[in-house]
Amino acid sequence: MTNLEQLPNELLLLCFVYLDFYSIYEIFFHLNLRFNQLIRYRTKIHLHLPSIPSGKFFQFCYQLKQYIETTENYPCILVAESKYKLKLILEDEFFTESFSKLRSLILSNVDCQTVGFIIFDCPTKLYENLERLSLLNNVTEYDRKSRYNIEWLCNNLISSKMKSLKYLKLNIKHYKSESHFNLNFDEFTMENKSISNLETLIIGYSGYHTYTIVSFETLTEKLLLRLSNLKNLLIDFLEFENYCMAYGRTLPSTTDIISNVPSSLQYVKIEVEGDGSDPDDEKIVTTFLRNFFLNSNPSDKRIVKIIFIDNSDSF
């Protein structure tokens, strides 16, 4: 029977992919010279904060800092499921250098104020190097009067301030209830137009219940204007009903609408609700949206998927 030490380095590294760095460090580091070398120079640091016991948290962070200083192997992915451990390491100047080169941040159960502060105002300056940001479950806005409210946060995340951000996933929860949160991007104006480097934008689709809604008007008149490099757009809940009602049952031709669809766009997946009891509603809505996204270059190989959700039972 083969034991781990008999496996070649390549297979050991594949095994390490399924473990967070705390587990790798606790189990294999200091085991022998071979494992030390593999961990030091060939293992990426994927740090999953919930897996670190609270009683060992500071001790491990101190060991991690020493490890980073000697190996120059910096954390590339950080996962947090609450704000407490996250703030302890990112707000402390002692760890500034250790996390200044962080590439990916995955957050759940945090408020917008915490997200805004750690990205834009902490000594780590995550806005300079962060390439991927996922705001998943229970990301809330507690105080709309706060500087770091959701409109402020979105305005800065989807802008040139995020110098390296290519991937953004948003799932925002209403600050008072379980109701849906309408992302209006109120700070997105023609006078305040800051082009983002984003290539992938996902609103919803977090694997959790989707709370976030974007209207068709907001998407076309505000959001797409900033996303000239966008390649992938996924929206779990596009509010289209009000747009339809404004025109009755006859929607305007997509050639009459300034689409602002970036030419770089390659993949679109959108879920939209409508009245399934009306046999024409699904066809009208899906055809209009498909033509809208293909209008800028109909001969392109752009993939457009429109998923129609029947909400007739809610009437």
Describe this structure in words.
The chain is an alpha/beta fold. The chain has twelve helices and 13 strands. The chain has helices at 9-16, 21-28, 33-42, 57-71, 83-90, 96-99, 112-120, 126-129, 150-157, 216-223, 241-247, 281-294, and strands at 45-48, 75-80, 104-107, 132-135, 139-140, 167-170, 172-173, 181-183, 200-203, 212-215, 232-239, 267-274, 303-310. The strands form two sheets. Strands 1, 2, 3, 4, 6, 8, 9, 10, 11, 12 and 13 form an eleven-stranded parallel sheet that branches. A two-stranded parallel sheet has the order 5-7. β1, α4 and β2 form a beta-alpha-beta unit. The longest helix has 15 residues, at 57-71. The chain starts with 8 loop residues before the first helix and ends in a 5-residue tail after the last strand. The model has no long low-confidence stretch (mean pLDDT 82).
Task: Give the SSE map.
Blueprint: H1 9-16, H2 21-28, H3 33-42, E1 45-48, H4 57-71, E2 75-80, H5 83-90, H6 96-99, E3 104-107, H7 112-120, H8 126-129, E4 132-135, E5 139-140, H9 150-157, E6 167-170, E7 172-173, E8 181-183, E9 200-203, E10 212-215, H10 216-223, E11 232-239, H11 241-247, E12 267-274, H12 281-294, E13 303-310
Parallel strand pairs: 1-2, 2-3, 3-4, 4-6, 5-7, 6-9, 8-10, 9-11, 10-11, 11-12, 12-13
